Amino acid sequence: MFARSTKRTAAKDPIEGVETSLTIPPKPSAIAETDVRWRTAVIERERAQEAHRQARARYDGQVPGEPMAITQHEVDEIGGKIATLMEAERIAAFARDQARADYQDQVNAALSEPIINLTAEIAGKVNEVERLLQLAVTLNTEAKAAGVTLSSRFPGASGLIMTQGLFHLRAMLNRFPTTAGL
């Protein structure tokens, strides 16, 4: 007849499928690029503001009757560049924030269903654990009725685990949808 194979096939890990679907997509390079542009705009604006402050201080520190080191017009000219640089910084910050928001939306769209599935898996496992704990509670009740002290204290603690631990876990799980569209 047929020879029996002694090789056992490894049981597929049920969590493996869930685990592979819960992967954060890599950040697009646009985020880093827009962040660099924003940081550069901030540095340019800060340099212009510092140059304006220094020019103003030089103007204010001039001694009357001596040759002028800087005129009010020159101070105003230096300061006039700041508004343009502030606008460039605002535009760069908006582009950076938009790139981050787009990535956030992409991640949420990609993970919405896998997270719902994960929550449903956990809820299902909690149901299994609850059934097993109920077996332990029943065993403990029957042991007490028979006047037997069990060698393990776990069946006696199972009721507390059910009423405290699972209660809180279920309360948390109930706050999250376990089906699409909720």
Shape: elongated
By oligomeric state, this entry counts as: single chain
- Classify the secondary structure makeup into a structural class: mainly alpha
The helical percent reads over 70%
Low-confidence stretches: none
Secondary structure tally: strands: 0
Radius of gyration: 34 Å
Element pattern in H and E: HHHH
Mean pLDDT: 87
What proportion of the residues form beta strands (DSSP E)? under 5%
Q: How far do the termini sit from each other?
A: 56 Å
**Number of helices, counting only DSSP H or I runs of 4 residues or more:** 4
Q: Tell me the major beta sheet.
A: none
What does this structure look like?
The chain has 182 residues and is mainly α. It is built from 4 helices and no strands. The longest helix has 75 residues, at 72-146. The protein starts with 13 loop residues before the first helix and ends in a 9-residue tail after the last helix. The chain is elongated and about 110 Å long.
